[in-house]
Amino acid sequence: MAGANMSGELRNPARNIPRGTLSAVGFTFICYLLLSFLTASTCTRFLLQNNFLFMMPINVWPPFITIGIITATFSASLSNLIGSSRILEALAKDNVFGFILDFVACGTWRGNPIAAVLSSWFLVQMMMLIGSLNTIAQINSVLFLLSYLATNLACLGLEIASAPNFRPSFKYFTWHTAFIGLLGTLVMMFVINIIYASFSIVLCLLLVVLLHLFSPSKTANWGSISQALIFHQVRKYLLLLDSRKDHVKFWRPQILLMVGNPRSCCPLIQFVNDLKKSGLYILGHVKVGNMSDFVIDPTLDEYTHWLTLIDHLKVKAFVELTVSQSVREGLQHLIRLSGLGAMKPNTIVLGFFDDEVPIDFFQKSSSIEYIDVWPINLFQPDDNDPFDTTSLFMLQLACILKMVPGWSHKKQLLTENSVMKTPANESIDYIQRVNQLIQEHCKNTTATFIYLPAPPALESSEEEELVYLQYLHLLTKLTFDLPPTILVHGVSAVTSTTL
């Protein structure tokens, strides 16, 4: 690993590291193999077991062994000292440990990390205080094998993630060789010493977790392998998610919330986050304009700010932005194109249009106890079907809301499913009386679910604007001076009414 540790000093690391590493390993392997064969052929069993310096009496000139020991020790120690100091310097420059290694980054002279070399030397001296070369050798071997294990694990992860930019030039490399190297180093660690191996692995995992949680550089854009692995797994399982196998028993809300002004919609974003019940949650925003008027996509710069908002509110949501000539057209685009595969929104949430002047009020929070549900079409009470799609959808949403820890102490109140009959053509007086009826029952209500009738169907477009304005006016009168109100209209079944 000496070449890899000093990769910053090499002209062509991709070429020099493989050649140098393989040639060094091959040469060392041949020397050790010949030495083992020759000593086993010429020395007795007793000599090999009881004399650690058996090479001196059998050598042509005994001082050769002393010179060899000194040279090998000096070469290995110097190589490891320089390599480890370069790694320590890189950790300091990347701010992995924060201010702890600031002195290392500052102690560089003419490109040489003097402070890192002295720090590495001091750590080596601390290990030497153990006083037993056999113990030091075992610890040293376990730690070296742990570094090899981490290298093989990284290569295995990159190969499994199928990252296009990971193209090792070593033609014999596959995930099989990385796995064999990983398994081999792990086994050898425990063969050397079970206690040292277990302790080093636990310490390494603890260090990784602490760095992940508290490192100042955790926001650095290094290209985390975890994102590549997550993408690989998510894509695989998303392909297994088949929309043709959906069943109403496992229905869950997959919500698209249209947000106009994020500053004024934060409470709504958090409320809808409570309604999603581990389902898909998308924040949609339409930027009105013509795409041909922009040189680049205007939503690119805004996207980062939306992600910052999600992090600040601590909601689990995705963001979809689009450019369209009108909000209505943009909403239609988002409804059809949001999501991926079988994960498509099935519930659209819109903030109710409100041009009234804000009014401050005070209400004692301890008196708010109920989630109020009105599962009846208040515009057409003659159509009294308690099991129609919208009524069941309202009850489903109210039940989901009550499952959320912040809402679990609220009582779900199902208001009596009957109101006064009215002519087919609703009047303002009737809607106001219904509003008064709801107010009488919602004094202690924290959220009210009300049946949202479908907009009136028109045969001609001439009276479209007038009828729709009247429809919105009736809804405004219906919800006047009520607690937080959710108008619900269902299209498809969300629960099964049969066994």
TrEMBL record:
GO cellular component terms attached to this protein's record: membrane
Membrane topology (UniProt): Multi-pass membrane protein
Source domain of life: Eukaryota
Location in the cell: Membrane
Sample GO molecular function, one term: potassium:chloride symporter activity
Domain Amino acid permease/ SLC12A: 2-256
Chain ranges of the SLC12A transporter C-terminal domain: 267-353
Segments traversing the membrane: 21-40, 60-83, 136-158, 170-188, 194-214
The UniProt record lists the keyword Transmembrane: yes
GO biological process assignments: cell volume homeostasis; chloride ion homeostasis; potassium ion homeostasis
Key words of the record: Membrane, Transmembrane, Transmembrane helix, Transport
Recorded family membership: Belongs to the SLC12A transporter family.
Listed PANTHER family: GH08340P, SOLUTE CARRIER FAMILY 12, CATION COTRANSPORTERS
Name recorded for this polypeptide: Solute carrier family 12 member 9
Originating organism: Timema douglasi
